[in-house]
């Protein structure tokens, strides 16, 4: 935000929110002092340097300007930097290099390279050589954990917690932008005792336009110390009179206004990581710390990578939720079409239609305007008021749903009936004449919890009249009149699907001549919508296979083979069911074709027993992928990799009418132990049938070979084609497992082990798991929360968990010790009744330590 001055801004009354948007934050002319900057021309002549560069490489900034970079850095460092230049293929590319000796004095630095106009910008900061941890390796298990979230909200909650585990900041917020630019904190993870910001809204002016633009290009922004004014860059401008553009800089200094803003919140350090959804800024990970904190470049890189991968997972989760919403709309469509007679009209069945819509879209009142006939229910405008509204509706798009949560803003006359109908959702159900189903919502005194006054008034600041950041972050309630509860995107999409349903009803009631013509046109619209739906589903499925298969492949050729095999398996399954006009197809035929396609002449090594069944399309696709993965694994590592090996596949009927498929490998190489790595193929085998068909799956790795059992409910196939053989296998039942309840504590100084323990306790039933890295944090958690069970690492490096054990013992809280095989267990001996879990532990060993 630009400060006010008489020469540029005029009188104080001219100061407004656009001042923030005019501040040139990308050419601020300073860097943060924890690193230094050197800028070079294309022929490697230094043209800019930060004043503090001598603290890092021992050469004054004034002495660097105009010299060759080779005069300043070691030959080895220069060669390394030059070798990375081809990586800067795009204007926004940033190349990172870790642990480089720049000046030949033994000091190591982390470097970043990027292009700024015609200049090459080199930024560097001390390398954190006290740790040899590769933090980027933490990202994969973090992404695996958040991917298990059932909803997008739970996904954001888990991501905030995982990010806090990685970077150690006091508060991590997931901050989502609305269409109007305002923001809301939708998820939060914070240390015990901190004030929560969850649920607070922030005005669009809090993040100016130019800052949002930078967030879409430069995905990570760190402010290590709010009290750091920054270090100047020399010279201030180049010979053309232009300052150095720092848009892609990781060290770019901070606007004094923003520093004051953070200080007013009690924040001493911050980190922002962009969350992009299909190239657009969806939100941010906003991270706050109560003391100055400089994260190593490697940790920042890992956090940025996690933010990017989270964006992909979030997009997929929201897409999944969208498909579920479409499913509910499709169910309503089917119900309405079944209830309405073929010659029925919308007006004759208005109550049935409106009652059905209420199960998908909440509303306070509804109006039907069909062929000049007015029908209403609930809180709506009168007929006379609605007739005035019809002319306005006729100006909206004919074939699109229209919505507004403040009707009075677009149709001022509506203020007269805002108490009954402040917002509306319009479903046009014909083109000529214009007919509508209109849903209304009543006025709601919408209390929005703002983090401070959203109007952000002009105050007398340290530099004269300007827009001063808010001094108080107490909740500010803004009441919005003539406004209803907003129509959410899922409701709007459901309305569009319902519009097509109602159009189909209109087609059915038309006379023969009009019906044929209108039905053809509407049929085309429905076909396009269905084709679009099917294509999107196919693309989403293929995209998921490509993305997930990438985690297994070790080379491009292997990636091509793995993905190609899975896609061809789907293709063969699709061919079978389309050959039967999308009717159920033979499971025996599926296995025969899959075995021949994959094994060729060796397909005879796959034997099938038991009656045949005809699987319905959804089950056919799921079983196809499972069989493909089993065949692939067996051919690579199991029975089919040996000349004498065979696979026996048995079909049988279950007592409840369902079917069982059993897979048994014999004659293959002995299995020493189950595979440690569970790839995407294993996920398909173990989860496809339970997830997509509500069935069961069990995979075993015995010394003699792999065996598997799958159970499919009867709803997914059409009967058995011949008599059931005797001796059908019994149904495998999962052993019941005791579970935890309430809150649990993990005291562990290793992040990965702590995260695994957290997941294990959660799987055993803990409602919430708190993680502490040292005794101080653990004791603070015990003061703040009602812990029911604790898992304590005996050896915490410079301390032991004894103080925590004493508190737990005194309070009668159940706990267990965790110890490595080489650790002393003297502490555990002093608590003879406390169980000891040996590392590396698993769910079963923790389960065994739970109280009886």
State the gist of this model.
With 852 residues, the chain is α+β, with helices and mostly antiparallel strands. It is built from 24 helices and 35 strands. It starts with 5 loop residues before the first helix and ends with a helix.
Radius of gyration: 33 Å
Mean pLDDT: 80
> Which strand-content bin applies to the residues?
15-25%
Q: DSSP helix count?
A: 24
Structural class: alpha+beta
- State the helical fraction: 25-40%
Low-confidence blocks of residues: 1-19, 463-467, 529-541, 723-737
Overall, the morphology is globular
Number of DSSP E strands: 35
Largest sheet: 7 strands, antiparallel
Strand order across the largest sheet: 1-11-3-2-6-5-4
Amino- and carboxy-terminal Cα gap: 62 Å
Question: Can you characterise this structure?
Answer:
- The chain starts with 5 loop residues before the first helix and ends with a helix.
- 35% of the residues are buried.
- The chain has 24 helices and 35 strands.
- With 852 residues, the protein is of the alpha+beta class.
- The chain is globular, with a radius of gyration of 33 Å.
- Mean pLDDT is 80; it is low at 1-19, 463-467, 529-541 and 723-737.
- The longest helix is centred in the middle third of the chain and has 43 residues, at 297-339.
- The strands form 8 sheets. The chain has a 7-stranded antiparallel sheet. It has a 6-stranded antiparallel sheet with strand order 9-8-7-13-12-10. Strands 15-14-18-17-16 form a 5-stranded antiparallel sheet.
- Helix 6 runs antiparallel to helix 7, helix 10 packs antiparallel against helix 11 and helix 14 (489-509) packs antiparallel against helix 15 (512-549).
- Helices cover 37% and strands 23% of the residues.
């Amino acid at each position: 935000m630009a400060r006010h001055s008489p020469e540029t801004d005029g009188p104080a009354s001219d100061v407004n929110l656009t001042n923030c948007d005019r501040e040139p934050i990308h050419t601020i002319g300073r860097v943060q002092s924890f690193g230094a900057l050197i800028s070079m021309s294309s022929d490697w002549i230094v043209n800019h340097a930060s004043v503090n560069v001598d603290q890092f490489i021992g050469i004054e900034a004034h002495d660097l300007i105009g010299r060759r970079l080779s005069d300043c850095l070691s030959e080895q460092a220069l060669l390394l930097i030059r070798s990375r230049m081809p990586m800067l293929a795009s204007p926004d590319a940033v190349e990172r290099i870790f642990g480089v000796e720049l000046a030949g004095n033994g000091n190591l630095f982390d470097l970043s390279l990027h292009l700024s106009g015609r200049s090459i910008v080199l930024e560097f900061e001390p390398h954190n050589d006290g740790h040899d941890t590769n933090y980027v390796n933490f990202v994969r298990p973090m992404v695996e954990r958040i991917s298990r979230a059932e909803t997008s909200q739970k996904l954001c909650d888990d991501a905030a917690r995982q990010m806090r585990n990685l970077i150690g900041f006091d508060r991590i917020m997931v901050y989502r932008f609305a269409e109007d630019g305002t923001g809301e904190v939708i998820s939060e993870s914070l240390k015990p005792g901190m004030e929560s910001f969850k649920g607070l809204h922030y005005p669009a002016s809090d993040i100016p336009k130019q800052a949002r633009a930078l967030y879409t290009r430069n995905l990570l922004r760190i402010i290590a110390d709010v009290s750091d004014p920054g270090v100047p860059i020399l010279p201030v401008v180049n010979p053309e009179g232009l300052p150095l553009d720092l848009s892609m800089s990781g060290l770019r200094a901070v606007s004094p206004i923003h520093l004051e803003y953070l200080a007013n919140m009690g924040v001493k350090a911050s980190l922002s990581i962009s969350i992009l959804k299909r190239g657009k800024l969806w939100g941010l990970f906003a991270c706050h710390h109560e003391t100055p904190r400089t994260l190593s470049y490697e940790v920042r890189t890992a956090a940025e990578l996690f933010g990017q991968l989270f964006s992909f997972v979030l997009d997929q989760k929201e897409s999944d939720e969208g498909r579920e919403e479409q499913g509910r709309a499709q169910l309503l469509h089917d119900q309405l079409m079944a209830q309405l007679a073929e010659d029925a009209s919308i007006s004759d069945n208005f109550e049935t239609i409106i009652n059905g819509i209420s199960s998908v879209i909440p509303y306070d009142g509804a109006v039907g305007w069909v062929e000049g006939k007015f029908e209403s229910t609930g809180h709506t405008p009168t007929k006379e008021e609605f007739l005035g509204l019809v002319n306005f509706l006729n100006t909206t798009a004919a074939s699109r749903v229209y919505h507004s949560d403040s009707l009075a803003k677009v149709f001022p006359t509506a203020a007269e009936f805002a108490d009954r109908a402040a917002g509306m959702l319009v479903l046009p159900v014909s083109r000529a004449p214009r007919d509508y189903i209109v849903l209304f919502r009543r006025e709601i005194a919408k209390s929005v919890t703002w983090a401070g006054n959203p109007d952000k008034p002009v105050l007398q600041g340290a530099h004269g009249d300007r827009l001063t950041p808010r001094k108080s972050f107490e909740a500010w309630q803004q009441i919005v009149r003539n406004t209803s509860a907003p129509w959410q995107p899922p409701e709007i999409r459901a309305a569009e699907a319902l519009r097509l349903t109602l159009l189909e009803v209109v087609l059915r009631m038309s006379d023969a001549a009009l019906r044929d013509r209108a039905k053809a046109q509407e049929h085309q619209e429905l076909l396009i919508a269905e084709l679009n739906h099917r294509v999107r589903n196919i693309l989403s499925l293929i995209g998921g296979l490509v993305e997930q298969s990438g985690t297994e492949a070790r080379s491009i050729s292997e990636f091509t083979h793995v993905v190609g095999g899975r896609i061809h398996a789907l293709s063969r399954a699709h061919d079978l069911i389309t050959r039967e006009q999308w009717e159920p197809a033979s499971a025996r035929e599926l296995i025969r074709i899959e075995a021949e396609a994959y094994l060729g002449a060796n397909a005879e090594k796959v034997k099938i027993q038991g009656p045949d069944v005809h699987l319905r399309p959804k089950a056919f696709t799921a079983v196809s992928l499972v069989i493909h993965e089993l065949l692939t694994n067996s051919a690579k590592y199991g029975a089919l990799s040996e000349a004498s090996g065979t696979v026996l596949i048995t079909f049988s009927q279950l007592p409840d009418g369902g079917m069982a498929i059993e897979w048994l490998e014999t004659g293959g190489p002995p299995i020493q132990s189950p595979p440690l790595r569970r790839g995407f193929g294993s996920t398909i085998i173990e989860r496809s049938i339970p997830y997509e068909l509500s069935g069961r799956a069990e995979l075993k790795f015995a010394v003699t070979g792999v065996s598997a059992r799958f159970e499919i409910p009867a709803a997914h196939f059409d009967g058995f084609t011949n008599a059931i053989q005797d001796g059908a296998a019994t149904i495998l039942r999962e052993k019941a497992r005791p579970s935890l309840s309430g809150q649990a504590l993990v005291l562990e100084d290793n992040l990965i082990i702590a995260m695994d323990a957290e997941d294990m306790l959660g799987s055993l039933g803990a409602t919430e798991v708190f993680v502490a890295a040292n005794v101080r944090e653990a004791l603070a958690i015990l003061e703040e929360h009602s812990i029911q069970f604790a898992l304590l690492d005996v050896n915490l490096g410079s301390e032991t968990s004894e103080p925590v054990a004493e508190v737990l013992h005194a309070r009668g809280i159940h706990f267990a010790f965790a110890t490595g095989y080489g650790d002393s267990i003297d502490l555990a001996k002093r608590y003879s009744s406390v169980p000891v879990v040996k590392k590396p532990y698993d769910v079963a060993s923790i389960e065994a330590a739970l109280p009886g």
